[in-house]
Please model this.
Amino acid sequence: MTTHKLLLLPGDGIGVEAMVQVERIIAFFNDRGGDNTFVTETELVGGACIDAHNVAVTDETMAKADAADAIIFGAVGGPTWDHVPYEIRPEAGLLRLRKDLDLFANLRPAICYPALADASSLKRELVEGLDILIVRELTGGTYFGEPKEIVTLENGEKRAVDTTVYTTGEIQRIVRVAFDLAAKRGNTVHSAEKRNVMRTGVLWHEVVTETHKADGSGVKLEHILADNCAMQLVRNPKQFDVIVTDNLFGDVLSDAAAMLTGSLGMLPSASLGAPDEKTGRRKALYEPVHGSAPDIAGQNLANPIATIASFGMALRYSLDMATEADLIDAAVASVLDEGLRTGDIMQDGMTQVGTDGMGDAILAALAKLST
Ligand code: NAD
Model:
């Protein structure tokens, strides 16, 4: 019997409503019994934490985050906290979690449920059944390299500089994540860089090739130029399994891949740190891609699927519970097949439900699929 320690950080706005549905699913698995159980603690983060403690995340919560097997995060922010000083704004809580836990690997899956294939900007046959995972390096590269500045030249013109920097170690650790994940999925990694024009691309290519040789996991490696990767994502996205890339290219490619699948309310993500030396377990935070949606918060309108799917990713990637993760995916797919939709994914001829209604339906499907 394994007991998994989860820290739930619902945050603000629809983060709170969506997390209620995740708690119901956790209770379902606990009630069902089996080899895995969950203990959860819930803490404030973001605006709610500013209201209570005048900081976006407390030191006590950071200690719990450090000790948790996985953190499930809702969303933070909203107009209520627009006036607070920049250093303590709601997003500062999320940034501190990512920075202090050194969550350098950002995972963004792009999964297209057959029932939603018509919501994609691409033709149904190109996206139906799509299941891509983009692994983006999150703490290095162009967004953090120095010098990073705008200077005024002698002739009065301005000159802006961003610097792309990567070390061998930074590249090794992110590609190892990609190889580990691919081994649990379709067994193929595409590594995207621009070695034709960037020195960081040359080093990236070299280190990925060497790490792959040393890895020995049997995962298939393909190299692809990042611009070609963008083109292939819209031409024939189903050729990809895992794509690993740097911070800048990952930012762009993951947004492009996400839009292949339709709505913001459907997109989960994960951020992973280095494996613990003793246990091999990585620090990990799972969260939907969307924000706190103040325009619909508190009205039972939010789509909880992105947060539920984030919990599913925690089962798959942190807790070795792939069977249960598959069960959640199958439950979501079956509810969508039945024609149930929240407002954000509503289509003609379908039945609109609220946040609770979507939660009810997913729980019912879980119960049915697990008998
Ligand atoms: P948003 O993602 O909150 O909302 C964008 C639009 O999508 C809104 O119309 C919203 O109603 C809709 N939407 C988003 N998620 C939905 C869901 N699950 N179901 C149904 N509809 C959904 O982005 P925004 O409006 O730019 O930002 C609102 C607040 O959230 C801001 O304070 C922003 O800073 C914050 N934010 C936080 C995070 C985070 O916590 N990681 C991410 C993005 C934005």
